[in-house]
Amino acid sequence: MGNIREQTLVLIKPDAIQRGLIGNVIGRFEMKGLKVAGIKMMSLDEAILREHYAHIADKPFFPGVSSFMRSSPVVAICLEGLDVVNAVRLLCGITKAREADAGTIRGDLAMSVACNVVHASDTVENAQAEVKRFFNPDDLFNYDKSEYMHVYVEDERS
Ligand code: ADP
After folding, report:
1. What are the tens digits of pLDDT across the range 12-44?
2. Best mutation site among 15, 56, 99, 123 for ligand 1, i.e. most ligand atoms within 8 A of its Cβ?
3. Which of 38, 39, 64 is closest to 53 using CA atoms?
4. How far is the CA of 53 from the centre of ligand 1 (A)?
5. In terms of pTM, does the model score above 0.70?
6. Has 52 been annotated as catalytic?
7. Domain ranges in the chain?
8. What is the pLDDT of residues 60-101, one digit of tens each?
9. What stretches of the chain show up as alpha helix (H) in DSSP?
10. How many Å lie between the centroid of ligand 1 and the Cα of residue 35?
11. Of the four, 26, 107, 147, 155, which is 20 to 30 A from 20 by CA?
């Protein structure tokens, strides 16, 4: 059984900020039964983007990604739940939004590879590093969520 306190990092990207989709995106995570452990709006600089996107830093499209991600603030969210890294990646859909499954965030809300509404950590290991990158320990909250009684059965909660 996985860990109910597993955490992942989501960024609501500038296209979604400009299109007024913050509430829609957060609503989908809330409706799924995930706990918001931390949330903040922030402007990203070149240094944090180089670190965050190290795996694509030598791609020809990286300068475009970097300037897009700096074109407005983003909303960073730390979500918590059982197998949350995988669950959130499934909710987000594949990178190329116009081919993402209907019902997913990218599938429902976007058409682009670059402007694809959200970032979500891809592995548990990367999620731990990414949560630390965007949140200080004081920005994260540990609290009981009463709906967990109805989101999980007992053996999933322990
Ligand atoms: P994901 O965000 O789905 O994990 P990647 O880590 O491969 O995808 O890429 C990071 C981000 O870089 C993507 O979300 C997208 O915004 C951008 N990106 C990826 N591939 C391209 C591309 N071919 N052209 C433009 N932007 C891209």
Report:
1. 999 999 999 999 999 999 999 999 999 999 999
2. 56
3. 64
4. 9
5. yes
6. no
7. 7-137
8. 999 999 999 999 999 999 999 999 999 999 999 999 999 999
9. 14-18, 22-32, 46-52, 62-69, 84-92, 105-109, 124-134, 148-151, 154-157
10. 26
11. 147
Task: Kindly state which CATH superfamily the domain 7-137 is placed in.
Answer: Nucleoside diphosphate kinase-like domain (3.30.70.141)
Output the six-digit token pair for 25.
Answer: 């995106």
Measured CA to CA, the distance from residue 23 to residue 27 in angstroms comes to 6
Which of 78, 71, 63, 100 minimizes the C-alpha distance to 13?
71
Of 113, 123, 126, best ligand 1 pocket probe by most atoms within 8 Å of the beta carbon: 113
> What pLDDT shows up at residue 117?
99
User: Which residues are bridge partners to 41 per DSSP?
Assistant: 75
Kindly state the average pLDDT of the residues 99-108. Answer: 99
Letter for the amino acid at 34?
A: L
Q: Rounded mean pLDDT of the chain?
A: 98
- Residue 128 token pair: 């731990």
